[in-house]
Amino acid sequence: MEWETVIGLEIHAQLATRSKIFSGSDTAYGAEPNSQANLVDLGYPGVLPVLNGEAVRMAVRFGLAIGARIAPHSVFARKNYFYPDLPKGYQISQYELPVVARGFLDIVLDDGTRKRIGITRAHLEEDAGKSLHEGMLGMSGIDLNRAGTPLIEIVSEPDLRSAKEAVAYMKKVHTLVRYLDICDGNMQEGSFRCDANVSVRCKGSEKFGTRAEIKNLNSFRFVEKAINYEVERQIKLLESGRRVVQETRLYDSDKGETRSMRSKEEANDYRYFPDPDLLPLVIDESLIAKVKESLPELPDEKAARFVRNYDLSEYDAGVLTASREIGAFYEDVVRGVGRDPKLCANWVMGDLAAFLNKDNLEIGESKVNADALAGLVTRIVDATISGKIAKDVFEAMWASGESADAIIEEKGLRQITDTGAIEKAIEEVMAKNPGQLADYRSGKGKLFGFFVGQVMRATGSKANPAQLNDLLRKKLSG
Amino acid sequence: MSAPAPTVAALAQGLATGKFSSVELTRAYLKRIAAAQPSLNSFITVTGESALKTAAEADAARAAGRAGRLTGVPIAHKDIFCTEGVLTTCGSKMLGNFVSPYDATVVSGLRAAGTVMLGKLNMDEFAMGSSNETSYFGPVHNPWDLQMVPGGSSGGSAASVAARIVPAATATDTGGSIRQPAALCGVTGIKPTYGRCSRYGMIAFASSLDQAGLIAVSAEDAALLLGPMSGFDPFDSTSVDSPVPDYTATLGDSIEGLTIGLVREFFDEGLDANSEQHIRNAIAVYEKLGATVREVSCPNLPLSVPTYYVVAPAECSSNLARFDGVRFGHRCNSPKNLLDLYCSSRGEGFGDEVKRRIMTGTYVLSAGYYDAYYLKAQRVRQLISADFAHAFKECDLLVGPTTPAPAFRIGAKCDDPITMYLNDIYTIGANLAGLPGMSVPCGFVDGLPIGLQIVGPHFSEACMLNVAHRYQQETDWHLKTPPAFA
What we know:
heterodimer, A: 478 residues, alpha+beta, Arc Repressor Mutant, subunit A, nine-stranded mixed sheet, three-stranded antiparallel sheet, 15 helices, B: 486 residues, alpha/beta, three-stranded mixed sheet, 11 strands
């Protein structure tokens, strides 16, 4: 029997507002426990929520970016359950009428084809606090700094068919929310996390299998591993004649497995109802128009433009638009060089990316800025140095912070383009290697490489490669 | 100074003319409170020391020429309003130890107007009750007959004003909790339009129905005090951003040509015949003053009690979830685990009526029952609102009885919640529709006061207060004081 995996993701992205969604408390991460929880966050008697308009604008930004419908009228509801890190005994969320509905994002599959992933809805809600169990002398501590932080929950259609697709989709959302400046995307701090609904069914079947929900996955790697584990577990169950039970599961990243948290029967009845403390959220056309105007160029638009204007492959365009910063860096390099955008792309995606990765730096922290890199690429394009020498120059630039020209000058790396000088070097090499010369002339064409290497060594790798090839071929053939 | 002057208006006058100081006045009221407390039990906390301090500040402000109309006038707050640094119990063991770290907006508004807080008034637990018998701090007694209930949930406010131990008091009304006790104690009560006063710092019972208001001796007093506690509050999204008029400015205006509607459904078989006679007499006074009286119908109004007892418990079941023993309020001793912490803290902290309503509310919101109860109740609520809207096309105000009968004996209805709930049958409609309502003393039945209810369209407080004031210029029911507290 062939199985098909069906996955839907619920992504929680913390909105990058300065204050909380229903109170004026600061949202900055990492403060002293409970130092950013005011009476509203603590759910004191008599306090009331007041909606943060910036959170609404951010939700609208997201909605417009995924081609969704922005609800002119949406409603905040209370999700009721007891937990110590939920101060009011209910979470304010949106239930029947979310602010964003019916959007989509396209992902690129391994074979290069595009696949459209439906987004059922995205709604605003408040985050809960944190329960701390370690170092509490057998008790539990409650930190309510996070309580009331605005979240947008992005619910996909069950359109994903593999862990890889799920990760591609999650990355796409991750890129988008950062493009839109609505979420910092920091997964370690929990700013971006997801729950995965996973089921399997016989290939070709119309009906969905019974699903399990894996909670709180906070890295792309965990999403992939957890889903793969879960799919395998479900297939094993079904193939041995057993059934999958609907339940909530947790992923244990140490053991690399998912395990049951609670069954459907144990699930809370959340008793959702409209929150009477908040008026229905009304979003008018003028707000939508204003937000639309302020939208940046979106990743897909930018990638398409890169393909069109810079003649890049879709793959390269995808890499160079993975964040707004990379895209901007790349375009600054292209602007600085003024031609050969493909070569610029290779440098940004190649050496620059490798060095950033090695030093664990973000592109904004790069030790070689876009202007400096443009200076280097310009010297390749104008044949001052070869691509090979350029790699050494780049390394020196990274280490010293000096410009390409300064290093080329200092180290005397200027390429030799003087025909006479190259010819002289060739003649010397030929004179030193009479045996090889004879072999070459008697038909061992492979030895051409040997002579290139020798001349390069003789010129300290500074000979212009194209010129060298031409001259060498002429000289060798006598 | 022996017996305090009877109204806020008179006290303000006395303070303004230097007849007495705020300190003298405050001291006199504190003395009356202390004397009455054993028989009435209308206070939960008396803040004598801070009252005298505030009074001295008021006197100093007056001496410096910085006095407003209400500077130095003593009042008291229902214990549902948070008061900074002062015990705020909401009538519950759950908050028996809760000292609020902040002031409710209503409290700070009245403080800014210069009033002096005498203390915090007894009430039904979490405002759930119609007799003030559900208070953890014991029942309040009706000053007209100590065997009788004062009504509820603002029983402490009504009894205190009736006994003239406070000049006026704040109160709240979710289903009649201002108007019903005002009627049963023979005082004037006003529940403004939903959204007129901020709910911030007013401990929530049913958020879509709760409204702050006042109990006072006269409509004029209510008009004086309502302004400073009204207006838009950025901390309450449901407060309404509409200008607050000077409610005293229109007092005394002619009501000639005003159309008063009698809601047919208010004069049903449940209405006590003697009470009805007094209501009819009051209507005759209005006809004499030049108002036109016509009958109107609100056919869905009889559904208001069942509708209310779905909507209010639903909201309360969620609003009261925060009382979990974790951050404030009552916490049980040595809980075995988290569930035990919740169950024991809540089990010990809440009284029976509160538990009954939490359970009812939890039930009507449960999966599978939500549509049948909560959604249906919301639809009926809209029908009731539409009935009122329709009625206000034909008349300016509605009048009728506030309660079916005068006060009942303490303990008489304790074991029968349904009978108890029916006490609010005439008042709940205004809450469901968010309309302002008043109760004005209009006579006595067997020595116990009864009230005339006035209900107006949204934001018609000024008109309502004037209509009540005109009646009080023609009658003196509101000036009668219980013999034991004269």
